[in-house]
Write a structure and sequence with these properties.
heterodimer; A: about 270 residues; alpha/beta; Rossmann fold; 4-stranded antiparallel β-sheet; 9 helices; globular; B: about 300 residues; mainly alpha; MetI-like fold; 2 domains; 12 helices; 2 strands; about 80% helix; about 0% strand; MetI-like_sf (chain B); ion transport (chain B); NtrB (chain B); Nitrate ABC transporter permease (chain B)
């Protein structure tokens, strides 16, 4: 039983998602099925509008599927919960709270029953330290850079000690150098925490660098999983060494072929 | 040689001018400080500082002064040609006389101008405070819950365009006294902008923030205190500012109808005495007090801005 739970830590079964819009109903996802092992890092990649973020929001519990079921650690996902933390694309920090207060808000909700204020504050500080932002604890979000904001977003998510970390294009809005730095940081954090992660991205290099498996989605409407690519590169992975690695180059070209040959999207 | 010394003198003159204006103008002093050291070697910089100061003077000080002068001139010309309308000078003397003793009390119907202003402010304050107590929570409920919004929409759209003075008879009937009726009218005036602006603010809270609330599984109280309230604050302050403006407009009219002690009643009383100077003074008082109220609220609003 324990073993089955580990192999199917997050379980997505025949999920359909249809949105009711003003112009009628729109089927975004069709028959999505996916098993995610405990501790695994999954990337979902696809062209924009293919419903990657919808999959993530379903796992987060922010959306309810029209058909099919989702489970996390053996329990059906019915609503958002702190065991599934989300790092939002646009960081979504509350601008009137300091970085520490933003993290504290999350910590308080999860641990307030068992810990006192001092311990909660210590926890929040520890989360900020993990992403290297102790010095910015008392700053407001508008006083720090985009990369730092995203790090606070990650700290807020990790501070809840989630079982699953959901990342919605976490580095999409950042410049290439900042992005690379944060990817390296995320890799070492994930190694420390050992939690399961699902990341939506449109960056092929990012997907190959970070993931254990890459889920490639077909184009919408009624998008589904096209292929799943296992990334069997040894960890810890070093960005510079990988560039020379033929296995890395091969994986990268596999994803590119999927995106630009088999499921090319005409420029809108 | 003499040409050089003349130029030097003129630079010194300019420099003194700049320093004079800088003392009066704290913003300009920054510019002056950074240039004084290099003035001798680079006279154009001193010229630049002087130009900046004078430009500020022409942009911000001169136009309002010219505007007020033209206004007073037109007033003087018009009053000179129409008997009965007092000119600026006459009004000024009358105002000086009036403000010599603003807080006298001869009898309940003859009190100093200060008392009249304070009484009007008290009514506005009370009506306004009650409107805030009712309007802001109502705005939150209407903005947060679609059901409440749909329920309140017809009532608000029906009653909002009604002149607040139309509610005065109802107030007089219910409270059987002039003073609470005037406060009631102010309440009605002030409550709509507060409800509407608060509700608009709540309905505009970005979905991202609400998603954060859902993912963090925040309690309804936390959602209110950490997300809704801080986000809505600027909208709320706009509502508050709009309502204090109109409340102050309406109090004059309401007091004309109810009588008692207050700036509106005072205007009517002076009209009955045919004391036109005092009516003109009252117009200025109402204008200035209204301006001060709004500026004060803007100052408070800035304290609550999180940007």
């Amino acid at each position: 039983m324990e073993k089955i739970l580990q192999d199917r830590y997050v379980l997505i079964e025949n999920v359909d998602m249809t949105f009711n819009t003003k112009k009628g109903s729109f089927q975004a996802l069709k028959e999505i099925s996916l098993n995610i092992r405990e501790g695994e890092f999954i990337s979902i990649i696809g062209h924009s509008g293919c419903g990657k973020s919808t999959v993530l929001n379903l796992i987060a519990g922010l959306l309810t599927p029209t058909a099919g079921h989702l489970f996390c650690a053996g329990r059906e996902i019915a609503q958002p919960g702190p065991e599934r933390a989300v790092v939002f694309q646009n960081h979504s920090l509350l601008p009137w709270l300091t970085c520490l207060e933003n993290v504290y808000l999350a910590v308080e909700r999860v641990f307030a029953n068992t810990e006192n204020k001092q311990q909660l504050t210590a926890r929040s500080h520890a989360a900020l330290e993990l992403v290297g932002l102790s010095h910015a604890a008392d700053k407001r979000p508008h006083e720090i850079s985009g990369g730092m904001k995203q790090r606070v977003g990650i700290a807020r998510a990790l501070a809840m000690e989630p079982k699953v970390l959901l990342l919605d294009e976490p580095f999409g809005a950042l410049d290439a150098l900042t992005r690379a730095g944060l990817q390296d940081e995320l890799m070492s954090i994930m190694k420390q925490s050992g939690c399961t992660a699902v990341m939506v991205t449109h960056d092929v290099d990012e997907a190959v660098l970070l993931s254990d498996r890459i889920v490639m989605m077909t184009n919408g409407p009624a998008a589904t999983i096209g292929e799943i690519l296992a990334v069997d590169l040894a960890r810890p992975r070093k960005r510079l060494e990988l560039v020379e690695d033929p296995a890395y180059t091969h994986l990268r070209s596999e994803v590119l072929k999927f995106l630009y040959e088999r499921h090319a999207k005409k420029a809108a | 040689m003499s040409a050089v010394s003349i130029e030097k003198e003129s630079i010194m003159q300019k420099r003194q001018d700049v320093e004079k204006t800088a003392a009066a103008h704290p913003v300009a002093s920054v510019v002056t400080l950074s240039t004084t050291g290099t003035i001798a070697s680079n006279p154009s910089k001193a010229g630049f500082a002087w130009a900046a100061t004078s430009r500020r003077f022409f942009e911000w000080v001169l136009p309002p002064v010219i505007g007020l002068c033209i206004f007073t001139a037109i007033w003087a010309v018009v009053s000179a040609r129409s008997p009965g309308l007092p000119g600026p000078l006459l009004t000024w003397h009358s105002a000086v006389e009036l403000f010599k003793d603003p807080f006298y009390i001869n009898n309940p119907n003859d009190m100093g101008i200060g008392w009249n202003i304070l009484n009007s402010l008290k009514r506005v304050g009370l009506g306004f405070a009650m409107a805030a107590v009712v309007g802001i929570p109502a705005g939150f409920l209407i903005g947060r819950y679609a059901f409440m919004s749909n329920m309140a929409a017809p009532i608000i759209s029906l009653l909002k365009p009604v002149s607040p003075l139309a509610w005065l008879p109802i107030g007089l009937m219910v409270f059987k006294a002039a003073d609470p009726a005037a406060i009631w009218v102010i309440f009605i005036t002030a409550v709509w902008p507060m409800i509407i602006n608060t509700a608009v603010g709540v309905s505009k809270v970005p979905q991202d923030y609400l998603n954060v609330a859902r993912v963090l599984n925040l309690s309804e109280w936390k959602v209110f205190s950490k997300i809704l309230f801080p986000y809505v604050m600027p909208y709320m302050m706009t509502g508050v500012r709009l309502s204090i403006g109109t409340a102050w407009l309406v109090i004059v009219a309401a007091e004309m109808l109810t009588g008692g002690v207050g700036i509106g009643f005072w205007v009517w009383d002076e009209w009955n005495n045919l004391n036109v100077e005092h009516i003109i003074i009252a117009i200025f008082i109402v204008g200035i007090v209204g301006l001060l109220l709004e500026q004060a609220l803007m100052l408070i609003a800035r304290q609550f801005s999180y940007e």
